[in-house]
Amino acid sequence: MIAKENVNLILPGLYLGNARSSLDDEFLKKNNIRAVFNCTKDLPFHYSIKNKYRIPVDDNLKEEEIRNLELWSFESIYKLTREHKQGNVLVHCYAGMQRSAAVVAMYLIATYNMKHEQAISYIKHKRSIAFWPYTNFLKAIKGFERTYINEIVPKLIDEL
């Protein structure tokens, strides 16, 4: 049985958790997890998960890793949006505090038009350990938000 702090429900069908939650057979089955977004370079996937996505980022506060998350963000958010529309999804990293929380924040920005402050606050409300003690990937989240608002949204509007 998985401990509550290992994983939290952020939105209906969207879970944010740690490495332990991603390998917990009971949790994955009970919650019908159809896709897992693994925000690490090396943690394994559970054998039962068919839709597996890796966002290869280290949480070492190096500028290149912060930029790396931002570079992976648009493809990841597109896939996360598609998977979440089809069923339940788990986004995780090692501790479920920084990398995966940043990806979920980007998802909230793109899907619910939240500002980065709102997205971070919302996630902290749902998962108290998220972004603790501070937001390591804030620069990546802000970069995603800026690009999304200034480049992606205008293209979407032009297509209407």
UniProtKB/TrEMBL annotation:
Residues annotated as domain Tyrosine-protein phosphatase: 6-150
Molecular function as annotated in GO: phosphoprotein phosphatase activity
Keywords: Hydrolase, Protein phosphatase
Gene Ontology CC, one term: cytoplasm
InterPro entries to which the protein is assigned, alphabetical: Dual-sp_phosphatase_cat-dom, Prot-tyrosine_phosphatase-like, Tyr_Pase_AS, Tyr_Pase_dom, TYR_PHOSPHATASE_DUAL_dom
Tyrosine specific protein phosphatases domain span: 75-127
CDD domains assigned to the protein according to its UniProt record, in alphabetical order: DSP
GO biological process, one term: negative regulation of MAPK cascade
Keyword Hydrolase: yes
Protein name (database record): Dual specificity phosphatase catalytic domain
